[in-house]
Amino acid sequence: MSTSTPPLSGPQTIQYRPRVANRDLRWELASELLHGEGLEIGALHLPLRVPDTVKVRYVDRMSVPDLRHHYAELAALDLTPVDVIDNGETLETVPENSVDFIIANHFLEHCQDPIQTIGTHLGKLRPGGVLFYAVPDKRYTFDYQRDVTPLAHVIEDHEQGAEKSRSQHYWEWVRWVDSGDADPADDAELEQKAAELEAADYSIHFHVWTQQELLELFLHLRARFTNFDLEAFRPNEIENIVVLRKHGQLGAPDPQVAGAFVKSLNSAPADVAAVPEGFDPVGYLVNNPDVFHAQVDPFTHYVQYGQRENRTW
Fold it and tell me: What angle do CA 207, 210, 216 make, to 5 degrees?
């Protein structure tokens, strides 16, 4: 079986082998870039591993019992407890500029209007906050036979309304992913099943991308929104990981979170004796958010840089 890059639009006739990862790339990026307090949307049975100093609240559109009832395939899985019941696309219960990060893995493909969703998520972040997305590459998943969603289609869904193409997306899902025993030539049967899933508001992959089209989407969004930088874009087995950082000054950490970080230091830093009497490492992190978000030891930072820069605690 060839593993060369397939055409950028389908239908594709074979499913490509997942790219092999020799390390836990999700964890590497999370441990480097996630700080403070934030949300994870739709974690289900696979919550992202995060540093011990990070506080996460879990968001889903249903409670755990309702998720098991609505999606039979989840019945036997150990699902993450849901802290906030909300629509992950709108996050209406989450105030603007209130969280340090939002994690949404294998979520954007379920969004009818990804542009609106990403814009909403950016609005919920504090300045300097991070969006952490992992998005499946359709070549390596059950979506492999579907046509790639072109950027023009995503823009049209955003500007003209996603309802316009909603039924077509359900038909594509049934035809290329979930046809089961249905005869592909039996349009009436396919249309009936698609209509049933749509009426039940069943969560499907509305849009599918390969690495190239996904990058095109985020470059378009950077030009459209102008309020974030593309911090990371990395292929990872069957998915692509995308990390965005919102522009603006970094927010001060909660003192309890800063205190937990100080306690997590394995031992007293060598520079602890060189700091002034009464030095408050927690206060130093709260008053110098860049030090906290870089996860730098406050004692060492003050001795090497902060004292010369007249930083306070």
Answer: 85
pLDDT digits (tens, 9 = 90+) for 106-131: 999 999 999 999 999 999 999 999 99
Which superfamily does 25-162+206-246 belong to? Answer: Vaccinia Virus protein VP39 (3.40.50.150)
* Amino acid identity, position 254: D
- Alpha-carbon span 194 to 85, nearest angstrom: 27
Percent of the chain with pLDDT over 90: 65
- Return d(Cα 174, Cα 179) in angstroms, integer: 5
Other residues' Cβ atoms within 10 Å of the Cβ of residue 14: 11
Task: For residue 198, give the 3-state DSSP assignment.
Answer: helix
Q: Report whether pLDDT(204) > 90.
A: yes
Give residue limits of the domains in the chain.
25-162+206-246, 255-306
DSSP helix/strand/coil, 225: helix
The distance in angstroms from the start CA to the end CA of the chain is 61
CB neighbour class for 202 (10 Å; exposed up to 12, middle 13-18, buried from 19): middle
Q: Mean pLDDT across the stretch 195-206? A: 93
Question: Rounded CA gap, 178 and 276, in Å?
Answer: 66
Lowest mean pLDDT among 3-7, 55-59, 96-100: 3-7
Q: Name the nearest CA neighbour of 104 among 209, 219, 239, 229.
A: 239
Cis peptide before 11 (omega within 30 of 0): yes
Q: Determine the 3-state secondary structure of 105 from DSSP.
A: strand
Q: Is 250 exposed, middle or buried (0-12, 13-18, 19+ CB in 10 A)?
A: buried
Q: Which two tokens stand for residue 210?
A: 């390969």
Query: What string of H, E and C letters represents the secondary structure of 249-274?
Result: CCCCCCHHHHHHHHHHCCCCCHHHHH
